[in-house]
Amino acid sequence: MSSSSLLRGTFILTLGTYISRILGMIYVFPFVALVGDQGTALYAYGYGQYTIFLSLSTIGVPMAVSKFISKYNALGDYETSRKMFKTGMLLMVGMGIVSFILLYSLAPVLAPLQLGDDQLGNSVEDVTNVIRMVSFALLIVPIMSVIRGFFQGNQTMEPTAVSQVIEQLVRIIFLLVSVYFILKVGNGELSTAIGYATFAAFVGALGGLAVLGWYFLKRRQSLNVLLANSKPNVKISSKEMIKELLTYAGPFVFVGLAIPLYQYVDQYTLNRTLVENGKREIAETIFSIIQFKAPKLVMIPVSLATAFGLTLVPAITKAFTDHNGKQLRVQIDQSFQVVYFLTLPAVVGLATLSYKFYAMFYNIEELSLGGSLLRWYAPVAILFAFFTVTAAILQGIQKQKLAVISLFFGLLLKLVFNIPFITWFGGIGSILATALGYLGSVVYSVFMIKRHANYSYRIFIKRAILMSIFALIMMVGIFLIGGLLQQFIDYREGRWEATIVSIIATVFGAAIYLYLSYRSNLAGKLLGKRFSFLKRKSLAGEKSN
């Protein structure tokens, strides 16, 4: 896969992911306004269990199918690729049913473990009900995921991107409408409303699955042409095929579990530790911010890295299979630079404007606590972005075990330091433990990539310094424009004031960063010849004047 093809596929997938993330951010404002801190905490209790069981139910098969198909397509063996897709589908149907039964049955056991204290706002019965409602999504999402893996293995990113957007859109509409009617029209219970809010994952998955089915029917003829022209297959038996698939899948399930596992640690320690340290009255508020509110904003810049993680695996696998070391190193270098180029300014802007963004989306009454936690949480986005990308690279160069070691090393740091840090620093301690865990994983992965891919970080470090300087200048600009706007508009007076200040400051900061990147031709070097052409055209226009 050429460098331009990598960027094109990444752009399509990134666009879909970003739209999905933005939709996921926008709905938070009316949702939080409807259900409050107790409701968002209850939502997080249920959804946290769901994400863990979803990762276990898929056991990394969707991404493994993508890698498997990419590998055998490169060999021209489309027949083996199609057989693997069918095998993956059957496996996901079975795993989805099993995981649904397990989560539904274990809900009464998992609920009290999360609360940590039966005197908090939500009851064990409430949490049990929410976990059971969200468990239905496990029947559909694994099937949808493996179809996405099939398309990505065929270097087709559009079905995944469009289905992500439709899935999110259907989920959000069902969530908001059901919660509004239960609470405002029917005067129903909060626990019932949150139950339907989590059930929206099942409804959204049906929408995404319908889109993927439409794409499959639309492209069935072209896929069948490839199958008809398949080279003689490698005579791999079903047993060998499953063994190879599981070899690929193992690392993916662990790496895919990164965020859920880190959140899982907090789900069983955060409330309990805060209560033990005399913070019972704000325990669920802190839990709601760290587990639901802050990640909704922080994960937006991370979505770029997620898109790269999805796109890199088949691309790097092909370069590695073809023994094209030069192309492999070019793709690694380009991936690191583009991820840092796009993630850094988003993180700096989010941290600088944390209080304003929090006032814009959430409760003004808890601005001091929420803004502070969001500011500390924002830098974690860079660490997770590089964790995702480095893990994808390690898997692409057949170093799956190293990706698993990286995850466990970081998770061990989180486990060891989480309770002491929460005891010493409160909610910020949980964020610090998360950052320390991801940092440990990234440092380990960086050294492993250097060793096994013969990759030099010299160019990346040089350009990363330049990007950091641009981001620093952007941050100063945001501070200045923020101080100026504060003379006329006080963001603490209400949501609309905070929205106006946030948008103006964000646009101003982005303009600074993009202008500096454009004038230095950094954007052209990273994002392709189109930007270089625009710069040359601009310079020619200046000379003619």
TrEMBL record:
Entry's transmembrane regions: 12-35, 47-69, 90-110, 130-151, 163-182, 194-217, 245-265, 297-317, 338-364, 376-395, 402-422, 428-449, 469-489, 495-516
Keywords: Cell membrane, Membrane, Transmembrane, Transmembrane helix
Major subcellular location class: membrane
Membrane topology category: Multi-pass membrane protein
Protein location: Cell membrane
Recorded superkingdom: Bacteria
Magnesium as UniProt keyword: no
PANTHER family: LIPID II FLIPPASE MURJ, PST FAMILY PREDICTED COLANIC ACID TRANSPORTER
Entry protein name: Oligosaccharide flippase family protein
Organism: Bacillus salitolerans
